[in-house]
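thoughts on these tokens:
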Amino acid sequence: MFPIAYHPIYKHPLPEGHRFPMLKYELLPQQLLHEGIVTENAFFEPGLPDLQHILAVHKKEYVDDLLNLTLDARAVRKIGFPLSAELVERELRLAQGTISGAEKALQTGIAFNIAGGTHHAYSNRGEAFCLLNDQAIAAQYLLDQKFAKKVLIVDLDVHQGNGTAEIFQHNEKVFTFSMHGKSNYPFKKEKSDLDIELHDNTDDSKFLALLHNTLPYLIETQKPDFVFYLSGVDILATDKLGKLGCSLKGCKERDTFVLATCHQHGIPVQVSMGGGYSLDIKTIIEAHANTYRVAADLYH
């Protein structure tokens, strides 16, 4: 049974008008339990992180402004959420969920954060609904604790992992790989170690062919001993924010290839769920649940 970070605060840090994107954090665990993919004891509630782990990635001035709720109005607008103590607590627990999940993946082979994938958070600012960069924080934690020597971040969300790229731009121990929509946000991209930009309406066959040609090469050349996978389902053609053309089947095949590759090479992997904004919540839940179904088949 693979461990899954989940905390009730994941689903309710926002005013009513902002809550639709959070609904999946309530419904997805219910779906996984309903299908018997996992049992209740698979879930763990992350506590609050040691701030030194946050400060290993994020600038102290920015973290202090978050904790004291003293970000200026312009910085809050870039984040896109009203700033509150509850929202900051959510982001802190979310980051700890990914740290703890990474530790657990060293033992079990794989672990999930039912939320996470906050890849637009820079070292010194937040943007696009991301305050703290959970996988960047956890990657640096593994390196600092000597639990890993080389980390590969595989970001397959429709949006470029711009914050992650900025954070690790001078860190040779972390290789950042982002495959994303060329015309999607962010409109000014950062430079990952490897960026693959996809044209609008890229379909399953093109997406999967690029992934099949790239990931094994990165495993071979970079020789990571830990992988962070951002499995956003906003690559779907039905996504209202994404511009790609993938199907549910193609999205599941993407997850199968990434997780099977990690499993085949014996590389532990932590998975954060990332984005998903299809108009029908059932589509979002189905796409995210597929990631867990794949893992259940591989890591039984």
Remarks:
- The chain has one domain: 4-298.
- The mean pLDDT is 95.
- The chain is about 45% helix and 10% strand.
- Strands lie at 4-5, 43-44, 110-113, 151-155, 174-181, 194-198, 226-230, 269-272.
